[in-house]
Amino acid sequence: MHVVQSMLQHGRAYGYNAAVAPQEGILAPHAIVQWHHGYNGYQGLVDGGDHIRPATWESVSMMLQLGGTVIGSARSKDFRTREGRMMAARNLVKLGITNLCVIGGDGSLTGANEFRTEWSGLLADLVKGGKITEEEAKKSSHLNIVGMVGSIDNDFCGTDMTIGTDSALHRIIEVVDAITTTAQSHQRTFILEVMGRHCGYLALVTALACGADWVFIPEMPPDEGWENHLCRRLADQRARGSRLNVIIVAEGAISKDGKPITSEQIKKLVTDRLGFDTRTTVLGHVQRGGTPSAFDRILGSRMGVEAVMALLEATPETPACVVSLSGNQAIRLPLMECVQVTKDVTAAMAEGRFDDAIKLRGKSFENNWNTYKLLAHINPPDVKSNINVAIMNIGAPCAGMNAAVRSAVRMGIIQGHTMLAVHDGFDGLAHGQIEPINWNSVSGWTGKGGSNLGTKRTLPSKMLEQISLNIAKFNIHALVIIGGFEAYVGGLELVQAREKYEEMCIPMVVIPATVSNNVPGSDFSIGADTALNTITSTCDRIKQSAAGTKRRVFIVETMGGYCGYLATMAGLAAGADAAYIFEDKFNIKDLEVNVEHLIEKMKTTVKRGLILRNENCNANYTTDFIFNLYSEEGKGVFDCRKNVLGHMQQGGTPTPFDRNFGTKMGAKSVLWLTDKLKECYRHGRIFANTPDSACVLGMRKRALTFQALTELKSDTDFEHRIPHTQWWLKIRPIMKILAKYNIKLDTSEHADMEHVIKKRSALGK
Q1: What is the pTM of this model?
Q2: Where do the segments described as N-terminal catalytic PFK domain 1 lie (predicted)?
């Protein structure tokens, strides 16, 4: 089969380049497939000539870590006219291009669909005008189109995250962190304006991730009299001893009557009414710059692969589709349905149907909004529930633990509970290192790395007697355990001790938080995203060094215990040549193939290599062994260096994803415990001994779910501390294909076309 593809891009977002690279990679095994890049978007199609160039494996190398778009983007007036589209069609026909992959926002994608609809008419006119022959028209009788959404606003309906959104959040959070330190020193109010003309996603997630006092978004204008409410909130926070107030404003923020709410207007209000020292910062195009985050690189790479599969499977009958992300799954959606729902949001806002607007934005947006409202807007109730909930961290520290503790504490206080902090894990529970923790004591915790409560790996089995005595002494009615594999095993030990100790018969919830991402019952753990970004940025620097010296191969060891998640995902995000992990067994022959592959690679213009190795992937093939093997076998062709990344992977300030994920998990766990406590309340006391009263709260495919600790035992390899089934193993082959290995991609789980329209009709237009 002869497929000639073209890619073009519109708009400017991060991760675009990650989406471009796989196109070349994924189709390499089909040698007769030819790729072209359309430079400068639709304008490049219209102008033709040098604007449509063949793309090769080597030409897309080193693009992964670049922000913006290497193949350029331009708004095209010509393409809006039929004449312009006719010229574009002629240029494509002359090159035999019948497949188009468009990366951009809803405008670019609508344009692509229009182009496809008109295609046969344009060809007929071209034949009539003698611009192309009948034979050429016949060969290019149909145009296939697939879209990928690149937009930092995350304003396209049908996809959880558009390419570029996560990186923009990284930039915003860097600025927020920098500003908050100075603001705390000076006791100031800061108003931060972020991008998002018609979509409040960036503002909303920023507000969640930095614990802002107030957020203004276009989808949900504040109630009448918000000025008084805002001033009262800020004054209350100051009275409670807070030295810092943060207000986040989306550039498209409006009031209920549709009038704009600007950062200057808010500044004037706060200064005039409260006399607070107030500063505004408008972030502007800083949000579009910089290097893409690990999440965006992986998203771009996965979407690029899915786009190619969609094009290869397309027929003249299939509607143009967009590939997008739902939870952690790649899905395909009809392009025009998504565009329609995106337009419906704008219509709902214009007509004042703001609840509909938030629902139409999708589940992820709605969850963020509901969590934000719960944590920011409610004053603690006067009536206490007489329930004591204890919170603890277990295992190795990781970024995002503090965000989960903060939201759990505040959600508990809102429910009327007394919250207790347990220091130093199960040791602290056994030795009585337990004290009340209040609203203010967790302020500013969201952006702090590590574990403020203190954490240890000790398991409870040898201290059950002391633990049960302290549960009784401190009158603990429920337990939130935040941590890694030890948190899961420790929780299980407490459940098994229920037979002997009645004090253990209380509801418990385990929140996975570990850089290793190895807790059964969850696809993601808090902390893994931060570690992944740390590894990726280090690998970028290493690659830069290797690119400078030429003919150099770096062997990098990552953490993760026996779980290969970090090595695999960092391999995908950093463009590694191989990633050795425990789950994907390898032998000396495989190592030999990898070395030969690198020797071949050194003959191209890409004279560098990056090999990742998970710390426990093989007891005998150690990092030193692999380094020595590569050094010996590559003698005279390349030299080697090795890097063991070590504990830097557990440190650092949490990424926006980990702050947001931790915040949502903490809040949800306490709401679940509150319901469980009502179920378990009998004859004036709490008694919980059913399996479903002790759960892991995990992210599964598309939702946060609670699973009983005991039910997850069958899916757990206790010796190697990993779950038996791990979703990310399915995307491992992508990394090998992108490193130019001729292997098959498992497409058994390929995404069928889904629909978004049914979500719309449910709202009763």
Answers
A1: 0.91
A2: 1-377
